[in-house]
Amino acid sequence: MSGPWTDLGGGMLVRQSAAFQMNSIALLHPEQAVLVDPGVLPSELDDFAARVAEARAKSTTLVLTHGHWDHVLGRPWWPQAEVVAHDRFAAEVKRDEKRILSEIQALAQKHGERWERGFAAFRPTQAVSGLHLARRGPWAMVLRDAPGHSASQLSLHLPHARILLAADMLSDIEIPTLDGPVAPYLETLRALAPLAEHGAIETLVPGHGSIARGPEAVVGRLHRDVQYLETLQREIVQARKAQLGKHEAVARLAAMEWDGAPLPQWAAENHRENVELLMDGPER
Fold first, then answer.
1. pTM listed for this prediction
2. What's the CATH fold of domain 5-280?
3. What's the whole-number mean pLDDT along residues 152-161?
């Protein structure tokens, strides 16, 4: 399968957007279709919907990994579908309703398209948290709380296929981006590490970027991002002890590494935002 589509086999397809290299996942079977974070541009959602329609599934479930605007846009294409999301999802989407519409309208225009379906906040049909086991048709899924980047974030593990759908984590084009203290993000990654290290995850699909294939590649991404967060946490403690101001801390931590090398230029803004967030926050 060429172009933006990647066939993982067994009815599992990934479509990558031209915007942010965002990945949307379709699990297709005549009994049940499970669509994870369908997005992001209107033409891409049309293409995604056409591929889903070809499967002629009896029912459709949307799984939305978290409430950030680029991950919640598929509902207008499947207004009658069951929606599974975190129990914090509805409040987050309601709070950001106007921003979500504004962001996608601007993005569509940037790509020469028009967003014509609007956006209204909605509640999931099934709100979950903690560790949740779900089955939809032939699809057995393990949903886990995955805080650190978003309080409403879930990861999705397909044990039979040894695939992890990692939401906005473990990307090759994004460093870990925090929404609060480092500890929750570290706990999320450390909980996933044994699954990868003992063979339960052999393919990793991040929310943005390239698919990691093979246990070594998956473990490598986990260890890389854990190391970044551990180093960041340690350096923030040292900056506080030295009584550095926020801007001094940003300058001092600019030389931090990611994946054993200096942070790439594209990561500099997110890294700076991480440092500023931690310096502004409580000592944790």
1. 0.96
2. Metallo-beta-lactamase; Chain A (3.60.15)
3. 98
